[in-house]
From TrEMBL:
Lineage: Bacteria, Pseudomonadati, Pseudomonadota, Gammaproteobacteria, Oceanospirillales
Name of this protein: ABC transporter domain-containing protein
Biological process terms in GO annotation: quaternary ammonium group transport
One GO location term (cellular component): membrane
InterPro entries found in the cross-reference section: AAA+_ATPase, ABC_SmlMolc_Importer, ABC_transporter-like_ATP-bd, ABC_transporter-like_CS, ABC_transpr_FbpC, P-loop_NTPase
Bilayer-spanning residue ranges: none
GO molecular function (one): ATP hydrolysis activity
Keyword Nucleotide-binding: yes
Length: 347
């Protein structure tokens, strides 16, 4: 079954097009990340699914039921049976945790509400906080309570806007693992929004990179990172060193490589930093080390590659990575060997 089907959704505010014929589908039980920079339309897309933003055109189905269709059908958020977690969690400060959860359960008896409260708090492993207030909780606990409140009505679909942005480090990693396990155990479909690709890698089954109101690529996170479809995706994902084909031959003349391909003047090559091997050279190679940064998993080296021997200012910048520190210093001339075949991009 398909949990979400978005077809040609268009949203504009004050004649500014926010979503441009946005289309995608989410199989039931899967977790999708809408990933992209600020202003790309990802939060608007999420709110459109929830019924908080009304499109001008398009069609939205949730679990086979039409919830929006070109202004002829427009079910309210309450009728769509989705859970929504806002970026700031939106917990009512004057209510206890139990009251916050009960607020989203209209129509149930007092006994039924209490049962749902206890069940949802048990799901997020905070069964003893029912009488506490939001300000008495840590950021991680507030996030779990927001999840409990969203799941208390037992929705089939959970929507989350930047759910991990207020939690740092080890707490975030554990929270993502715990929430992912909870969603999978209960077969709850989920769409979440973030600008942090690391969250997409850790939490999502599929990642949709949004650019200027549309999806540029939707696939497994590893595919999007390693095989981006275009330069916009590669640049946002920080997939590697993009080099235009008009510069490629000049670069290849300066590096050792083991692959061959006819070059023309269109498109780009994507060179992975972890596939760039460096060593100091006693010759003037036209490749200079300009910076070194420790990045936790190893060391990142910034290189300046000269494109024109008659114009030393005409250069491009590459990144290289190595697990262990190399015996090279800023200003050194370097020799480069590229250890894999680069990925070609059309634009």
């Amino acid at each position: 079954m398909t949990a979400v089907e978005m077809s040609n959704i268009q949203v504009a505010f004050d004649d500014v097009q926010i979503l441009k014929n946005l289309s995608f589908s989410l199989p039931a039980g899967e977790i999708l990340c809408l990933l992209g920079p600020s202003g790309c339309g990802k939060t608007t897309a999420l709110k459109t699914i929830a019924g908080l933003v009304k499109p001008q055109l398009g069609h939205i189905d949730l679990f086979g039921e039409s919830v929006f269709s070109d202004n002829k059908i427009d079910l309210s958020p309450q009728q769509r049976s989705v859970g929504f977690i806002f970026q700031d969690y939106a917990l009512f400060p004057h209510m206890t945790i139990g009251q916050n959860i009960a607020y989203g359960l209209p129509g149930l008896s007092k006994e039924e509400k209490q049962q749902r409260i206890e069940e949802s708090l048990q799901l997020v492993e905070l069964p003893d906080l029912q009488q506490r207030y939001p300000h008495e909780l840590s950021g991680g606990q507030q996030q779990r309570i927001a999840v409990a409140r969203a799941l208390a009505p037992k929705p089939q679909l959970l929507l989350m806007d930047e759910p991990f942005s207020n939690v740092d480090g080890q707490v975030k990693r554990r929270m993502m693992a715990d929430l992912r396990r909870l969603l999978k155990d209960h077969n709850i479909s989920c769409i979440f929004v973030t600008h942090a690709k690391e969250e997409a890698f850790a939490f999502a089954d599929k990642t949709a990179v949004m650019v200027a109101g549309d999806i540029a690529q939707l696939d497994k996170p590893a595919v999007v990172y390693n095989l981006p479809k275009n330069c916009a995706v590669a640049e946002f994902m920080e997939s590697g060193n993009l080099t235009s084909l008009r510069h490629s031959q000049k670069v290849l003349d300066r590096i050792d490589h083991h692959w061959h391909k006819d070059l023309d003047n269109s498109g780009y090559w994507l060179f992975k930093p972890q596939h760039v091997a460096l060593k100091r050279s006693l010759q003037n190679t036209g490749i200079t080390l300009t910076d070194t940064t420790y990045i936790g998993r190893g060391y990142q080296y910034e290189l300046s590659i000269q494109l024109d021997k008659h114009n030393p200012d005409k250069t491009i910048i590459w990144k290289a990575e190595n697990e262990q520190p190399l015996d090279i210093n800023i200003g050194d001339n370097l020799a480069i060997e590229y250890l894999a075949s680069p990925h070609w991009l059309q634009n």
